Amino acid sequence: MAVEELSVVLPRVLIVSRRTVRKNKFVDFVGEYHLDLIVSYGAVPVIVPRVSGVHMLLDSFEPIHGVLLCEGEDIDPSLYNDELSNLSVEELEEIRRLHASDTAIDKEKDTIELRLAKLCLERNIPYLGICRGSQVLNVACGGTLIQDIGKEISKNLPESQRVVHMDYDNYDGHRHVIEVVEETPLHHWFKDSLEDEKMEISVNSYHHQGVKKLAQRFVPMAFAPDGLVEGFYDPDAYNPAEGKFIMGLQFHPERMRQEDSDEFDYPGCTFAYQEFVKAVVAYQKKLLSTTTIQKPLKLNQEMEKKRKIIVRSFSLARDLYEKGRTFQPSKTSDLDVGAEFLEVHE
After folding, report:
1. Handedness of CA 5, 9, 11, 12 (dihedral sign)
2. For 205, which of 50, 172, 245, 251 could close a Cys bridge (C-beta 3.0–4.6 Å)?
């Protein structure tokens, strides 16, 4: 199959960009790990720039066969009715100082991503949320977020239960343990890597926020030792073979790779993307099968006879006009039919 044909038939996965500063100017980007995995499993990533006004142009990105939302800044707390929380002014200042690159609210990105998440929920479009993307999904369904894990969870726990969820000095190398919930998609993906009946794997993450109240429609798939939900899904909207996939992962399976290698820590790391794209492909097929193609009108015998007379009348009229030819009186009726047709369709 030619490359130009592939671009037509492959399903489209929308991914919203993130803003950063380069050479004193804002630039938008998406991590290549996400793009590589989407392409490798048979879909086309379509980057939605998080620039002003794009939230009003989302119809222009149709058809949408899947949405992958990933990392980014903190979500505006007013969107989940937790603008002030219980944190003191001093604590909020310290959070902004410690997490300066993450606490700068990006309202345009919030608006775009929440609209896309809600669109997926309304139309059953496959959705995979990684890190911030999982938080967007939870907020879109009425859930809430912890504004800072250190201030709201860790300080109230014994040292043995505290979890470091991010390391600014070691993004890719940082790992912490999570406990996988049995009989969930995450369990099926990583079951061959679970040792001695322990339902634990070590994951990469970098986030200082997380799920506080999980939206009612979701079921947890994993927990960190501090109780934080590390993955969840909608069991009523999960069947990749039928185009159903609504899921959020707080950790980063795409970054769980061995040092100086593209080899993943566990075989299950890529399954989230593989099953997501499987759902995207199935969703596209479902859309194509339900698209109504208008069949050409089939003329009955009488209509076909009249059509031929009309065509013949045009030829007679042309000869009469261009060449001054005369015609037999029997052909007058043909001209009358043609004239009637033109009057009706003026």
Report:
1. positive
2. 251
